[in-house]
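Record 1 of the preview.
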Amino acid sequence: MSSEGPARKKLPLLKLAVAGAIVLAVAALFLSGGNLQALIGQGRSSLDRVMTVIRDAGPLAFFTAMALLPAVGAPMFAFSLPVGSLFGDRMGMTTVVLCSLLATAVNMILTYALARRVLRPPLEWLIARLGYKLPQMEAGDASDLVIILRVTPGVPFCVQNYLLGLAEAPFGKFLLWSSVLSLPQMAGFVLFGDALLHGRGGMLLMAALLLVAAMALAHFLRRHYTRNKTPA
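->
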């Protein structure tokens, strides 16, 4: 008997259990006299306090953190979405976008260098002790691998950088294609976050169009390379 049947049955049951838990939690909140509006207000107040602390720390501290912390797993969108609201009035949105792109580029270079110069040598030694050899990328495959990895959905940004560094992708091709494919998306997220937090319809539309164009390009490249290329 195929195992697909039980697997398919478990998924709806899991969804029903999660939905039921949410309903029970909301019901318990109202029955206990909890005020949902007050709870939302407290959440906004806490967010405002956090934003104030970050704003007071200054743009240098923020963009330094943006360049370094994603190397240890911090999500890049946690920096790109609020940065316009934090420093747009003080620095101007053009400067904010340029600083965000610079921080992103520094992060790409840092994680690539860590993977290639710090992590790969001990990994090569360990694999050699086990009787194997770490694969070496062919020069002609470098651009293909960078493009395929950058346009593959679901792979975290820092993981992409580390994988390309471990694979010893040539630095020039790594930086070129990473900049072409990643930096426009970063600019779109910065503009989108600022427009969303400030309710600016025109900028929100422009940022959305930029993100749609970047995603369309990624989708086109993904289809092209998965159809015509064999990944390394």
